[in-house]
Amino acid sequence: MKSFLSRKERDLFFFDEGRFGLMPNIGKCWALKGEKPYSEVKPGYKNFYVYASVSPYTGELFSLILPWANTEMMNMYFDKIAKKYRHKRLIMIMDQAGWHKSKDLKIPNNIKLVYLPSRTESGRASMALVEKTCL
Fold first, then answer.
1. What separation in angstroms does the CA of 55 have from each of 11, 14, 15, 30?
2. What kind of fold does domain 2-23+42-134 have according to CATH?
3. pTM
4. Cα–Cα distance between 115 and 99 in angstroms, integer?
5. pLDDT of 52-102, one tens digit each?
């Protein structure tokens, strides 16, 4: 790993996305004895996704706020990060979400994906995988 990262034109990023937003819940409230409380609720969800990659070696962070978690958005993220780091070769470590492994995924030439093993209990197995991939 150190030999791979010893060159300035290479970097390692860990990637993940997360959902943030509102999800209204109907709950309990105080009311006078014998009276039934009434409250209009408009069920619905408003949320967004933050796609982010961070390099543990340089501390650099690259993130986008996107409306969905799907292959189309993943392709948009790859396009933007590949352009920002066009003079670097990136290794991107990520989980195995369906849109991370889609057959329609367009992986730029300067990015190599490394998938974390399913249900990893410790980071040691993940780092061993990265070291094998980078050497």
1. 7, 6, 9, 50
2. Nucleotidyltransferase; domain 5 (3.30.420)
3. 0.73
4. 12
5. 999 998 899 999 999 999 999 999 999 999 999 999 999 999 999 999 999
